[in-house]
Known about the structure:
Blueprint: E1 2-6, H1 16-28, E2 32-33, H2 43-50, H3 52-65, E3 68-72, H4 78-94, E4 97-103, H5 112-115, E5 122-127, H6 130-140
Parallel strand pairs: 1-2, 1-3, 3-4, 4-5
Amino acid sequence: MRIYLACTVRGDRGAIDAARHIHACLVGLGxxxxxxxxxxxxxxxxxxxxxxxxxxARDMAWLESADAVVAEASGSSYGVGFEVGYALGRSEQTxxxxxxxxxxxxxxxxxxxxxxxxxxxxxxxxxxxxxDIDAFLASSLSTASVxxxxx
Length: 151
């Protein structure tokens, strides 16, 4: 499965280790992650060299070609919110899965639109440990249906 992994690039990167864990889990499950470069420490500078318009065009093409969007949403990020909203808005027509994960200990700093999401087209996990992430991704990406839940 082709996965678009969304995570904060210019915002709060306090959950980058969790995003790296998500990436490793997805790869370990045999998925192709289109956006692994976002996990690099120098990603902001690298994306500056590509340019805003080119990043937008590239990322939109990846969003549209992905089978699923998996978002680490623990940090404040307009980009992650855009990506989740875009995928969610199209998911009924595309069948694209939308999975949103955030650190349960950061709930007070996570957007209420994320923490309170109960849309049947998405699954949400407030994780407490890496093992929570592993189990959530394995179960969410192994079934054909998308069900709503905050785990």
